[in-house]
Amino acid sequence: MTALPSLDEDMEQGLTEATTVDGLAGPAVRRARAWLSRAAEPGSVAFWRFVEDAGAVEAVRRLRSGRAPDAVRALVGARAGQDASLEDLLRVERCGARLVVPEDDEWPAHLLHCLTLATSEEPDDPRHHSPRTTAPVPPLALWVRGPARLDELADRSVAIVGARASTSYGEHVAGELGHQLGERGWTVVSGGAFGIDAAAHRGALAADAPTVAVLACGVDRVYPSAHGALFHRIAESGLLVSEWPPGAAPHKHRFLVRNRLIAAMTRGTVVVEAAARSGAQATARRAQKLGRQVMVVPGPVTSAMSVGCHELLRDVELGAVLVADARHVVETVGRLGEDLADPPERPTGARDGLSDVAVRVLDACPVRSGVGPERLARVAGCDVLDVLRVLPVLELADLVERTDAGWRLTPPPKPAAGAGRG
After folding, report:
1. Where is the Smf/DprA SLOG domain (predicted)?
2. Rounded to two decimals, what is the model's pTM?
3. Is the CATH number of domain 146-333 3.40.50.450?
């Protein structure tokens, strides 16, 4: 049995290999990024810049040999001497997953470029970098579980986020939004959590549309544990996505880091319900800083779960748009001139389309006893000839009727015999 090459041997050989072959990263590059995804926690500006400048393979070689800058080595610590890259790649393969890296055609480069631009504005001095949990750093790699292509699903996608402790109103709205967006060919992206996230995912699945859950743990783990069936359904047609390698636990700080991907990897973020202080609010503000449109569903002013939504709408600098359904969402983030919302249907009545004179004559008609055209002309403030011209129109519309005494309003229909009994 042939022994598998060690990580260091693969990295040495990778220096002479092509970075990309037929739209896929070379084996050494993929293994290097698999190792890097476990070596350091995502979100560090200094670590991302180090890998970007050196390249994935050379970055691993320097970290393994102790030649990386001290600040970068400190982020890796004891993990520099460990290697589970091959095991990780085999483990995700067994559960129907894969590692997608920036060198692959499948990488959603055009959407994630906003993170690259935001990171370029970070200061050179590491002491002044944004905290890791809020820094707008691009991912080094993404572990992806499901049959769909990540770039294709992300191309027309909308994030729906909100409270875990949601109300029945919020879950209904999120489910309807997910279903309507799915019917229109848009991908719903959320975090797979209880409440609004789960309702949005289920709404999309009910429309037989793919949906994406961005996780704060390995794609082979289910968190929350009650969502095993939901995650299985998502992975059948959509995607489970994570920056963390297989087996990674859902530590609290990882949810904060994860939120930037939900904001960046979509064309806009919809907040359905949010308390006065919530992760959904934070995700919305991160989306705005990345140049993404923020949309908000209003709620009852008496609901604590809508306080955060209303605060977002009141923030003039945020530029949030009020949305009530998928038509509003698609018009806001869709392609100019193509994704326009139809005007809402309004009830029509017999008065619609009447001329000004006809409306005035109609208002002048009495309810009970009829009157002549001369009397209608005086009350309506018009000529008798105008009255005689519009009365037949009003009669055809069943708005007025002629009696022996003159013209009056048509009485409302009488209720059928026995109506209202029982």
Report:
1. 134-332
2. 0.83
3. yes
The four Cα atoms 97, 253, 165, 294 give a dihedral, to 10 degrees, of: -80
pLDDT, tens digit, 9 for 90 and up, residues 120-179: 999 999 889 999 999 999 999 999 999 999 999 999 999 999 999 999 999 999 999 999
Q: Which residues pair with 48 in a beta bridge?
A: none
Domain extent listing, the chain: 10-142, 146-333, 356-409
Q: Does this chain's domain 146-333 share its CATH topology with 356-409?
A: no
CB atoms within 10 A of CB 38: 20
Q: Are strands 239-242 and 400-403 parallel, antiparallel or unpaired?
A: unpaired
CA gap 243, 142 in Å, rounded = 5
Judge whether 41 and 132 are in contact, CB under 8 Å. Answer: yes
Closest CA to 245 of 254, 253, 237: 254
Q: Which long-range contacts (CB under 8 A, 24 or more apart) does 360-364 make?
A: 361/386, 361/387, 361/390, 361/391, 361/394, 362/394, 362/399, 362/400, 362/409
Which tens digits make up the pLDDT trace of 342-374?
556 666 777 888 999 999 999 999 998 899 999
CATH of span 356-409: 1.10.10.10
